[in-house]
From TrEMBL:
PROSITE patterns: MULTICOPPER_OXIDASE1, MULTICOPPER_OXIDASE2. Residues 1-23 form the signal peptide. Residues 711-726, 763-772, 820-829, 847-860 have a biased composition (Basic and acidic residues). Residues 24-154, 677-748, 763-860 are annotated as: Disordered. This is Multicopper oxidase. Residues 169-282, 292-436, 535-663 form the Plastocyanin-like domain. The keyword Iron does not apply. Keywords: Copper, Metal-binding, Oxidoreductase, Signal. Belongs to the multicopper oxidase family. Residues 107-117, 677-691, 833-846 have a biased composition (Polar residues). One of its GO terms (molecular function) is oxidoreductase activity. PANTHER family: LACCASE (PTHR11709:SF511), MULTI-COPPER OXIDASE (PTHR11709). It comes from the Eukaryota.
Length: 860
């Protein structure tokens, strides 16, 4: 009995050390190694007994450069014990102090024990690991805590296989209070958190009980040697049919913050999305935080996308992108239910709430899972130190607010060293990312009661469950914020990871939104072509069956297939639009060498300053309005990789290219090993159920007849050159003469843009041989028929035909006027500094600027 009592006492002490809420403050040097325990009925785990690979190389982020120049990964950053944050004085803005009403229960926060209200069941209960026969370190625990449950890194004892079961089913939920049908994972929105260690193998079993096909992309995961599991219907697989099951099986050779989402039509906008966290046992920042949280930010639509996609992709449509109804933090929003006039159930959801303990340091993994919204994120009185971007560790850099574009991810660490209290979490949607005029009948949902400012609560343990009375930092508001990334100079990789000095090849891409001259449909184009996916015959299958990618059609937007393996490639992105575009590359992370200022969309990149010393490395970069952006990557991952704008409406309009990398290696060495389950998907896929194959011929014909096109202009010889085609610009800008381009864009480029300016028939040659394809291909204006016929992955649900009046701030919330109107400072749009920048060199820069006159080899 004596020994049993001692063992019990020691066990209780050990269990207390596992959680993030121990009463004894943790020192910065404390090393919590075991994960936060929680039960999960949806997941099973296969702990491999055999482990023949116990080595662990943290330099391997999935890419091997031709030569390694990185620093020693075993060196600790200059911040091993996380030094105290500097003291920031509170700004003297009396209007930043919102009124509070502690008695108003509708305004109290969502407690972590009941995280979202977007699940039909209560939060998964927590449990303590117990074992009579095994030591505590061997106790198996859940890999998927709730979205508002803190966790610590998973125990690492070598690579293992972790298996997750996803049941996809439409479920009635109300994330922002307004009830609608949600395309949910295991009845949840956001979907369950998937966690693993670097080196693990993930098996994700997907049972599709939707009434429409699907395909799930693991955003940011390189899928090395398994390109067929990248989850992109039309490129890497046929859609997964209704009622079928399919397993994604892949090794995770990276670490960091990622997410999964549907890549079929606009399905992820309706709810199919969730976080992925990959822990690194050798993370240089593992001792800089005591616990971790996942936080997502997103826009949200009350109407299923299937209800308005046919209109959005119709011949008649001339409006802007569909407008969201609200914003959310981690799946919790607060729509003003007084605006609901159609009888749809609506309730106040409270606030997304994260509970912390005084004295602790927390790592927040922040993911923007929006369809179109750029966010500015801040936590009152709590500066954030950025330590990771898009799965790449960076030297810690402290910010008061964090700009984050669609699909980007950041890890930030905050020190909870304030008095026990409640503090506002602010997620402000930038108006520059949602260009519309309220009440404009041309734009879908232009009567949205959108409140651009979304709030959550950081609640210290022991604080009353009332609304905060905190004041914000001096941050931009929704009107004054731009849609840029964090300053490049402040995102230096850690350990150092400079790019190869010179590029071997250059890809030139020009981006725009136009009116197709023949079909008269709006289309998003890259190099004059709008991508048209072939769901019946995805690119991977075409390559497996022996097709030559050089003979693909122009609308396939195929590039890079003739670039040798392990080449260094520069991608020059020229944005001809007066709005930003967040571009994501599948299968790779790239170095961002340059983000030109607005108005610098010259076709000669040699005029720009490139940072080839310590540029940031990531997989989503923002193209600024009317500008040139240059990125660099290495072709070390054979596969079929999408490269696209992550504004979902622009994907649906065709702003996609596919990089077919090392097709010889792919077809000879990898595709023969492709699982038969991929072929089975194509056999099961029924075209008659494909929402994109709806026959709208009669409707389109009638629409075309009723449409009066602009008066055609006389053809201009200069239009035959890709770099000199007209852009979607306000009047007064002459993009086909770079010498006459203004140094900066008009002052309204990031506010509500002017009406769209379209191509007319005089520029039809842009859709032929000038798309960068090899000779002998079919040319001419090929309209995106699959896009034009798009119907929906979704159906049902009620639309919100509510008043167009803008929602007022709720009682207790800071109003829209309370955010400072100051422009983002050093965390937004600076040029690379002199210490880390240089003019384009003799090799890579000239390739970037001189490519227009070269043969097709350097254009793919």
């Amino acid at each position: 009995m004596k020994y049993k009592a001692i063992y019990t006492l020691l066990s209780l002490i050990w269990l207390g050390s596992l959680t993030c809420s121990t009463s004894k403050p943790l020192s910065p040097e404390f090393k919590p190694r075991n994960n936060f325990p929680s039960a999960d009925k949806y997941f099973s785990h296969d702990n491999n007994k055999q482990n023949n690979n116990k080595g662990h190389n943290i330099n391997n982020q999935g890419h091997q450069k031709p030569s390694s120049k990185g620093g020693n990964s075993n060196n600790s950053p200059h911040f091993p014990s996380f030094p105290s944050f500097p003291s920031f004085p509170k700004p003297n803005h009396s209007n930043h102090k919102p009124p509070t009403n502690p008695k108003d229960k509708s305004q109290t926060a969502t407690d972590k024990s009941q995280p979202t209200g977007s699940s039909p069941t209560k939060a998964l209960p927590t449990s303590s690991p117990t074992s009579k026969t095994s030591p505590p370190v061997n106790v198996s625990t859940s890999d998927s805590p709730g979205i508002f449950e803190p966790f610590t890194p998973l125990e690492y004892k070598g690579p293992k296989t972790r298996e997750f079961n996803f049941t996809l089913k439409r479920t009635n939920l109300n994330p922002d209070g307004y009830s609608r049908v949600v395309w949910a994972v295991n009845g949840q929105y956001p979907g369950p958190i998937v966690r693993c260690n670097k080196g693990d193998t993930l098996k994700i079993n997907v049972n599709n009980e939707f009434d429409d096909p699907t395909g799930i992309h693991m955003h940011g995961i390189f899928m090395n040697q398994t390109t067929w599991f990248d989850g992109v219907p039309g490129l890497t697989q046929c859609p997964q049919s209704t009622g079928s099951s399919f397993s994604y099986i892949f090794k995770v050779e990276q670490y960091g913050t990622y997410w999964y989402h549907s890549h079929f039509v606009a399905q992820y906008v309706d709810g199919l999305r969730g976080p992925i966290v990959v822990h690194d046992p050798e993370d240089p920042y593992k001792d800089s935080s005591d616990c971790e949280y996942v936080m997502t930010v997103s826009d949200w639509y009350h109407e299923p996308t299937g209800n308005f996609m046919p209109t959005f992709r119709s011949v008649n449509y001339r409006g802007n992108d569909p407008v969201p109804d609200s914003g959310e933090i981690s799946g919790v929003g607060r729509y003003d239910c007084s605006k609901v006039t159609d009888g749809t159930p609506c309730e106040d959801k409270g606030y997304a709430t994260y509970v912390v303990k005084k004295g602790k340091r927390y790592r927040f993994r922040i993911i923007n899972t929006s369809a179109m919204a750029h966010f500015i994120i801040s936590i009152d009185n709590h500066p954030m130190s950025v330590v990771e971007i898009d799965g790449i560790n960076v030297k810690n850099h402290t910010l008061e607010y964090l700009p984050i574009n669609i699909a980007q991810r950041y890890s930030v660490i905050i020190h909870c060293d304030k008095d026990v209290d409640n503090f506002w979490i602010r997620a402000i949607m930038s108006r520059c990312s949602i260009p519309y005029r309220p009440g404009d009948p041309r734009t879908i949902n232009s009567n949205s009661s959108l409140n651009y400012e979304v709030f959550g609560i950081l609640r210290y343990e022991g604080a009353p469950k009332t609304n905060p009375n905190s004041t914000s930092f001096d941050i931009p508001n929704s009107n004054t914020s731009d849609c840029y990334d964090v300053d490049l100079n402040n995102l230096k990789p850690y350990p150092a990871d400079p790019p190869p000095e010179n590029a071997d090849h250059t890809l030139n891409f020009t981006v725009n939104v136009v009116l197709l001259p023949t079909s008269r449909m709006l289309a998003a184009i890259i190099n004059g072509q709008s991508f048209s996916p072939d769901f019946d015959n995805p690119t991977v299958m075409r390559l497996k069956n022996g097709e030559d990618p050089s003979r693909f059609q122009p609308s396939d937007n195929a590039y890079a297939y003739d670039i040798p393996s392990n080449s260094v490639v520069d991608v020059v992105m020229i944005n001809r639009e007066n709005r930003t575009h967040p571009f994501h590359m599948h299968g790779h992370a790239f170095w961002v060498l340059c983000q030109g200022d607005p108005g610098t969309n010259s076709s000669d990149p040699s005029t720009l300053t490139l940072n080839t010393v310590d540029p940031p490395r990531r997989d989503v970069v923002t193209l600024k309005p009317l500008s040139t952006t240059i990125i660099r990557y290495v072709t070390d991952n054979p596969g079929v990789w999408a490269y696209h704008c992550h504004i979902e409406w622009h994907v649906e309009m065709g702003m996609v290219v596919q990089l077919i990398e090392s097709p010889d290696i792919l077809t000879k060495q990898q595709l023969p090993n492709m699982p038969s389950s991929l072929t089975d998907l194509c056999k099961q896929y029924d075209n008659s159920t494909d929402p994109l194959e709806t026959d709208n011929t009669d409707e389109q014909t009638a629409s075309t007849e009723s449409y009066s096109p602009p008066v055609d202009k006389k053809p201009d010889d200069s239009s035959s050159k890709l770099d000199t085609h007209p852009a979607d610009q306000p009047s007064g800008i002459v993009p086909n003469d770079p010498s006459k381009m203004p140094l900066t864009a008009p002052p309204n480029y990031n506010k509500f843009p002017d009406d769209l300016h379209f191509f007319d028939d005089s520029f039809k040659d842009l859709f032929g041989d000038h798309s960068g394809k090899k000779s002998g291909k079919k040319s001419g204006d090929k309209s995106n028929n699959s896009s034009s016929d798009k119907s929906s992955n979704s159906s049902g649900g009620k639309s919100n035909n509510s008043s167009g009046k803008k929602s007022d701030s709720k009682s207790g919330e800071p109003s829209a006027n309370e955010s400072s109107a100051k422009k983002p400072g050093e965390s937004s749009a600076k040029k690379p500094g002199n210490s880390s920048a240089n003019k384009p060199g003799n090799s890579s820069a000239k390739k970037s600027g001189d490519n227009s006159g070269k043969d097709n080899k350097n254009n793919h």
